[in-house]
Design a protein that fits this description.
The complex is a heterodimer of chains A (about 160) and B (about 270). Chain A has about 160 residues and is an alpha+beta fold. Chain A is built from 6 helices and 5 strands, in the order E-E-H-E-E-H-E-H-H-H-H. Chain A has 2 domains: about 80 residues, Roll (Ubiquitin-like (UB roll)), CATH 3.10.20.30; about 80 residues, DNA polymerase, domain 1, CATH 1.10.150. Helices cover about 40% and strands about 15% of the residues of chain A. In chain A, helix 3 runs antiparallel to helix 6 and helix 4 packs across helix 6. With about 270 residues, chain B is of the alpha+beta class. Chain B has 3 domains: about 45 residues, Uridine Diphospho-n-acetylenolpyruvylglucosamine Reductase, domain 2 (2-Layer Sandwich); about 110 residues, 2-Layer Sandwich (Uridine Diphospho-n-acetylenolpyruvylglucosamine Reductase, domain 3), CATH 3.30.465; about 100 residues, CO dehydrogenase flavoprotein, C-terminal domain (Enolase-like, domain 1). Chain B has 11 helices and 12 strands. In chain B, the strands form 3 sheets. A 5-stranded antiparallel sheet of chain B has the order 4-5-8-6-7. In chain B, a hairpin with a 6-residue loop joins strand 9 and strand 10. The chains are: A alpha+beta (about 160), B alpha+beta (about 270). The interface between A and B is medium-sized, with 29 and 29 residues. The structure holds flavin-adenine dinucleotide and FE2/S2 (inorganic) cluster (2 copies). One FE2/S2 (inorganic) cluster binds next to loops of chain A.
Chain lengths: ~160, ~270
């Protein structure tokens, strides 16, 4: 057992957990942040993607000790109260989800993609960058549309800030 | 996953000391090989010693003739590095093709070569560029480092600290990725050194892991062009054969990937 301390969605968190605990289990089972999903548990599907210190990573493949001291953002931490994050809004408006299982991971990966590419995103890049996120429902088409739409909205909202 | 004890040392010496104390210790870097293997209970280390937060092991440096990458530098940071893109574009390109963005944010060069997966990308670059692997004990030439499937010249507890790549005159990498995992079904790295030597390494193809391809090296030394390989035949002896591709198919892929890599190298 170890005590891990980290910041999750802006709040300081401390938990006593076994060293073998994965970050995703800390989030879901100890902090009740069940928006982060476990799809494959084998590092392939991306349903568990969260941001650690601003980078989109698979939380099923991170030990809590590795995340000790870091800043974690989950799908629950991106909206401003009732106002959806532009990426969430774009997924809703473009029908970017069906069952929604992959969606939290898609959105966390997609925000990271837009942050890295800024205005230089095109369809091919989005498809290549989403290789680590698997969706069994949508056929990806509307997901790609959502990300491209959100990239425009995020530029506008950043310019406004 | 079986129970384990996690350690986060702040220096290489502290990490090495912790290793000798554990009954069955393992180093952890990005964890993107070790953690999946622990989840499958194929590894059950008593102690996991995290090298990923040791400051001396993170970062890279580019001089006039060498690109030195410290062991715990992530694939993302190599791919995104302007100095690496300028010095050895093929190396930055290789790093940008590993797995997916989330894997590249965590996986490290040292973890990749210590693991020596027969389908991993970095071993091809390390071998073809004739890199030097530095550890907390010694320096090891690439030609002496890879010892077949998942095995290397590293002694028990030895820590890779950095990998030094001589900057070549030309280099290119081309891989046929497995469509799901992105590991190399076959990947070929071609190099023309500043002294005019040619070195070519293939990953994903051989039953013994990464290997040099003498026939392609000879043909490219005589004539550095994709067409020079038209008449080369690669025998399928010792190549992997599995549901993803037969040994014949991989033998052909070695040639085709080499041709594409030369075209990319220019
Ligand atoms: C979905 C997925 C797709 C992937 N696709 C690819 C791909 O296309 N191509 C590819 O090449 N790889 C791929 N990988 C593997 C990925 O690149 C791994 O991250 C990498 O091979 C191992 O690096 P790591 O830092 O995660 O090592 P870890 O998992 O932390 O460690 C791996 C091994 O190396 C040892 N080790 C680590 N650092 C050192 C050191 N400094 N000294 C001595 N021993 C050390 C550890 O003890 C362990 O045995 C993929 C992985 C996943 C999960
Ligand atoms: S649950 Fe983590 S990648 Fe699938
Ligand atoms: S919406 Fe169902 S898995 Fe993607």
């Amino acid at each position: 057992m170890s005590t891990v301390k980290l910041t999750v969605n802006g709040k300081a968190v401390s938990a006593d957990v076994e060293d073998r605990t994965l970050l995703v289990n800390l989030l879901r089972d100890h902090l009740n942040l069940t928006g982060t999903h476990v799809g494959c548990d084998t590092s392939q599907c991306g349903a568990c993607v969260v941001h650690i210190d601003g980078r989109a990573v698979k939380s099923c493949t991170v030990l809590v000790g590795q995340a000790d001291g870091s800043n974690v953002t989950t799908i629950e931490g991106i909206s401003k109260g009732d106002e959806l994050h532009p990426m969430q809004a774009a997924f809703r408006d473009n029908h970017g989800l069906q069952c929604g299982y992959c969606t939290p991971g898609m959105i966390m990966s997609a925000i990271d993609i837009v942050n890295r590419y800024g205005g230089k995103l095109d369809e091919d890049t989005v498809r290549h960058e989403l290789e680590g996120n698997i969706c069994r429902c949508t056929g990806y088409h509307n997901i790609v549309k959502s990300v491209l739409d959100a990239a425009g909205r995020m530029r506008v909202s950043q310019a406004a800030e | 996953m079986y129970a384990t004890t996690y350690h986060r040392p702040s220096s290489v010496d502290e990490a090495a000391a912790l290793f000798t104390k554990g009954s069955e210790a393992k180093y952890l870097a990005g964890g993107h090989t070790l953690i999946p293997v622990m989840k499958q209970r194929l590894a059950s280390p008593s102690d996991v010693i995290d090298l990923g937060k040791i400051k001396d092991l993170i970062g890279l440096e580019v001089s006039a003739d060498t690109v030195t990458i410290k062991t715990a530098t992530t694939h993302h940071d190599v791919a995104a590095s302007g100095p690496v893109q300028r010095a050895i574009p093929a190396l930055a390109h290789l790093a940008s093709m590993i797995g997916d963005p989330a894997v590249r944010y965590r996986g490290t060069i040292g973890g990749s070569i210590a693991n020596n997966d027969p389908a991993a990308d970095y071993p091809a670059a390390v071998l073809a560029l004739g890199a030097t692997i530095r550890t907390n004990k010694r320096s090891i030439a690439a030609d002496d480092f890879f010892k077949g499937l998942f095995s290397t010249a590293l002694a028990d507890g030895e820590i890779i600290t950095q990998v030094a790549f001589p900057i070549p005159a030309k280099a290119g990498y081309s891989k046929f990725p497995h469509p799901a995992s992105r590991f190399a079904l076959t990947g070929v790295f071609v190099v023309k050194t500043k002294s005019g030597d040619v070195r070519v390494a293939a990953t994903g193809a051989s039953q013994n892991g990464v290997m040099r391809i003498a026939a392609i090296e000879a043909a490219l030394k005589a004539n550095w062009s994709p067409g020079a390989l038209d008449s080369v035949t690669i025998p399928d002896k010792g190549l992997m054969s599995d549901i993803h591709g037969s040994s014949d198919y991989r033998a052909n892929l070695i040639k085709v990937m080499a041709q594409r890599a030369v075209a990319a190298a220019g």
